[in-house]
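Type III PLP-dependent enzyme
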Amino acid sequence: MIELPAGVRDIAERLSHDRPAYVYDLAGLAAHAAAVREAMAGVELYYAVKANPDAEILRALTPFVDGFEVSSGGELAHVRATAPGVPVAFGGPGKTVAELSEAAGVARLHVESPVELRRLIALGDGPVDILLRLNLDVPVAGAALTMGGGATPFGMDDDGLRECLQLIEGEPCVRLCGVQAHLASGLGAPELLGLARAVLGRARELGRPEINLGGGTAVSYTDPAARFDWAAYGAGLRDLRQEGETLRIEPGRAVTAYCGWYLTRVLDVKRVHGRRFAIVTGGTHHLRTPVTKGHDQPFVTLPGDRPDPEPTTIAGRLCTPKDVFARDVPAALAPGDVVAFAMAGAYAWNISHYDFLMHERPEFHYVT
Ligand SMILES: *Cc1c(COP(=O)(O)O)cnc(C)c1O
């Protein structure tokens, strides 16, 4: 059962008949972030901005995080303007010379390859604090996406690492602070702790104090009530940590997914060749998440339960059969009803192709 927060319900009840809306529950986000902060005591918590860079969200998170992790010059400039003074880490494959130059001295740089390191050294700035991004050859079972544990464009294997260590030797422009590893997304606490053990084993051979274990804390779209076990992850990392080490994590999705709602109204209900469809204002060009991840986006409807729900496919207004939020899900919808899609706070609006078909953009509301 999904609970619609009171402030979100107020907006849903007044929703436009033409235009969908995003609602970010900043009060709910702050409460969640405070709980994560507490569970992760003793571990530095950075938020991966690419999950949702909305300025109000960054401001709401600022009291609870040690920093922000960015993956582009655009995110770097945005974070520095929105949350001045908050520490920043800059990761991601393929940084341009301009990005390296903007980040040098203002962010921890996660170096992805020997080519990137040479480019950074050639800038002649410094000393720049860097972490080397590891791609460890460890099995990553049960992950939603894998960024490591084999041949991927992310980070370095032992050969790349060795080359970087040679480049760094006696080089005044860079200061090696430690290593970073973001090996997979969508993992539970036991799996992440298993990876952490492998990363720490390798990191300690380098003898540097900072170890950034990446993000990847799981979110379940099929079971919205199931939550990542932050308490177990925090306790596990405190156990693993050795004297003098700084452990850092940089989750995105599991921080902001739950605070976002995408509200739409039902425009049409029809049966086509035996299948029931509800067509809503907006579409997956505003909320691409269910298409990219291949799930049914969880939702609540207003007014509440009508009698006799039947399997219904909830589709948007795009002229493509891919524009589907949920397939054959039990619902009893009528034109004018509101469908409030939950878990739309991460990798939702900001990954969506909203200019396709030139529909109006949604409204944005913030519940404080
Ligand atoms: C995307 C990403 C994250 C955040 O991953 P989530 O699955 O959203 O927690 C953290 N670090 C890096 C390097 C990333 O690319």
